[in-house]
Specification:
Layout: H1 4-18, E1 25-28, E2 45-49, E3 52-56, E4 60-65, E5 71-76, E6 88-93, E7 97-102, E8 106-111, H2 116-119, H3 133-140, H4 148-151, H5 163-172, H6 187-203, E9 227-230, H7 242-245, E10 246-249
Antiparallel strand pairs: 1-6, 2-3, 3-4, 4-8, 5-7, 6-7, 9-10
Helix pairs in contact: 1-6, 3-6, 5-6
Bound molecules: zinc ion.
Length: about 260
């Protein structure tokens, strides 16, 4: 599942491709917006907040979310698409390029003033210009009994972290993912680490995980085999799916919390 850094870099690519240029074609392949036509409109900017992407004109904001499989690709006009056309959900083109959103989890056309309905509930954006560590800390500590491995995934606390980075952040801070938020020795340092990890992934790709998906490989610190565990229940209300439950850690460097 794409995380905040992927969305951030996607926004950069789409900004280069679309911003400051007039649309010569818009093709919404989702029933609800099938009749929307933005031909002749100028794309003024492209931005992201957490895992949400916004392509803006003066009046509207096209909100998209990659969810599990979504991907944006940019092609020169006339170039053959590198993914199945049937999975395209949105095509935006100008004189030079075609930007195609494949398998997008969400496509929505909002008025600019309505963007807050999508992101208003989210915590501070780890990759945003107004990153606010104190506010992230305040939100995390509202539920002190919650395991940190789940709290980091909750976009209402910090926006942008997914399954990969929560494992990495816990490893770097030597915190077992099941540790209740309120029992963590230095929570501000963990929040800062989250900011640092996401920033590095976004600005210095490619970034390679140390523990994520590395079951049975040696921990680079102590040599103990990395292990994985399912954390939390499948909970639609919590938006945690089976696929997101697996978390990776070193059982020696990250000892389980004492009950
Ligand atoms: Zn270790």
């Amino acid at each position: 599942m794409p995380e905040g850094d992927t969305v951030f870099r996607t926004a950069e690519r789409l900004r280069t491709a679309l911003a400051g240029k007039t649309l010569t074609r818009s093709d919404f392949r989702v029933p609800r917006y099938a009749t929307v036509d933005l031909v002749g409109d100028l794309i003024t900017e492209v931005g992201s907040y957490g895992k949400h992407l916004f392509i803006r004109t003066d009046q509207v904001s096209i909100h998209t979310h990659l969810k599990m499989e979504g991907q944006w690709r940019v092609f020169h006009c006339g170039q053959r698409w590198t993914k199945p056309p049937v999975t395209a959900r949105l095509v935006l083109a100008n004189d030079e390029v075609e930007a195609v959103g494949f398998a997008l989890g969400k496509v929505q056309v909002l008025r600019r003033a309505e963007e807050h309905t999508v992101i208003g509930h989210l915590g501070p954006d780890l990759l945003g210009p107004n990153w606010d560590a104190a506010e992230a800390l305040r939100r995390l500590t509202e539920y002190p009994r919650r395991p940190i491995g789940l709290a980091l995934l909750d976009q209402r606390n910090l926006a942008g972290i997914g399954n990969i980075y929560r494992s990495e952040i816990c490893f770097l801070r030597r915190v077992h993912p099941a540790t209740p938020v309120g029992d963590i020795d230095d929570l501000p340092a963990l929040v800062d680490e989250s900011h640092r990890v996401l920033g590095k992934a976004a600005h210095e790709p490619p970034w390679r995980p140390i523990v994520y998906s590395r079951t049975r490989r040696p921990c680079p610190r102590c040599g103990t085999a990395i292990t994985s565990q399912l954390l939390g229940e499948d909970d639609p209300a919590d938006r945690i799916t089976q696929r997101e439950r697996g978390i990776y850690f070193c059982p020696r460097c990250q000892p389980p919390p004492t009950p």
